[in-house]
Amino acid sequence: MSEIRRLYRRPLTWAVLAVGEAAMAVFFMLLVIRYLEHEADLRGAGVTVEILARYFVIANLSVLLTAPLITMTSIAGDRQDGLLRFLFSTPSSAADIVIGKFAGVMSLAIAYVGLVALIPVTLFWGAPIDPGVYVTNVLGLALFTLMHVSLGLLASALTRAPGAAAMVSLGLGLALWLADWASRLDRDASIVGTWSTLSRLRGFAQGLVNTGDIAYFLLASVLGGVLCCLLIAAERDST
Amino acid sequence: MTDDVLLAARGLVRNYGRQSALRGIDITLRRGEVLGFLGLNGAGKTTTLQILAGALARHSGTVTVCGHDLDSAPRAARAALGYLPQTPALYDDMLVDEYLSWCGRLHGLAGHALISARALARQRTGLEDCGRRLIRHLSQGYRQRVGIAQAILHDPAVILLDEPTTALDPAQIRDMRALIRELGRDRAVLVSTHILPEVRMLANRILILHGGRVVHDAANRAASGTGSLRARFARDPDASTLANLAGVRKVGQAPDGAWLIDFDPSETATETLAESVVTAGWGLIELVPAFDALEHLFMRLTAGKPV
What we know:
Shape of chain B: globular
Oligomer: heterodimer
Strand order of the largest sheet of chain B: 6-7-8-3-9-10
CATH architecture of the largest domain in chain B: 3-Layer(aba) Sandwich
CATH class of the largest domain in chain B: Alpha Beta
Distance between the termini of chain A: 30 Å
Distance between the termini of chain B: 35 Å
Mean pLDDT of chain A: 89
Radius of gyration of chain B: 22 Å
């Protein structure tokens, strides 16, 4: 709880929540205006696809951009301030340290996902929205966030400079996102596309729950956490 | 003091690249002991403390805390340790109480035990009124106190303090020294510092590190000269009169004419000398402990270039 309270005392936390929520509200409004202006052309696709699914693509992109900001200091900052070495002198194991950090950052990420997921709920008051598609999109966003928090922590465990951790995390997130485009440009690179987060989110956007996609996000999250633990344990035992 | 060994380090070696920071040092700390840990800058004091605390890996050697090996039983060994780093490791965006609670939980404290331990640590370090203050808003002296509070919070058997009185004002230094003395009664305390008078006052054993090696490890009495007095009288007695006082071992004179009187610390020579001054009417001008011994010892042992 101390870690969570600490996060909410940082101006950066409130800035991320406020700017993220405001930006998503603007995007949502633009999507609604676009739909209303071209209603005749877009009626075939429907509100669910033209507003809801598009909104969640942008929501996932916003997580890709904000996750590095909220994870960058979690381990790198502690290392920079001598707090990680102090933690090594306590009975906490490497796993305890990583789980504690993960819980703190994840609580903030859940708050962000919750706020972002609330905005399209307004559509239920005037548009024929498929609730199932909404639920799968929220699930996809939550899994995507879980994975990016895990990757962000891993990047933070690699360096003592929070800025560098943010760049590594962002680079990794973008590479996984854009891998889908690479596979579209080159047929030989189709295998790369299967590792893309964008292609894994496609099913959720369409209201489909594919266990392979869920497993992908969960395994990537666990892998990031395990690598993070191994890095911290190695640092404790060798530096 | 008993022979109850609470911390034993053997053959500690630590290298930074090609440079050897520690070259096989041994340290033993017993219950009831306050060990003064001295050395020049770069002698390896902080490295040693970090290794003893389990915060830094060593390249060779063993560390045992309360019978628990730091490698094979790290949780038990670390739970018995309290460690104040040279720069207190604090989260600026936590309240003092939050930080102390967090530290307590890291050491397995919870519920009422945590609350009472936190209250006691705050009381011992003079932080009674600071529980709801944000650490970022504390002065350097108060930050240091919070660091010390976390080191003693879980009532560890072994306490490692790296320059504990840094940034404290004179009144805080006095209180901190009293606290260290109190802690040293039934625990083992290692105090690393540059301040020789501090070691002289606090420690009952002194260890001097130079060039990554232990160059002195002995009882404070022998090193600091607590059994030595400097006295000046209006009417000087004979040297033989002074030498014949109970407990006096040796009498000499400083260049300025003051008497330097070495005595057996176990005897009450100061009291005997004071009585003699009054009864014989020597007219006491100055009577102070002669404290040069520790400084001379330190300068002599650390004068040479480390080998």
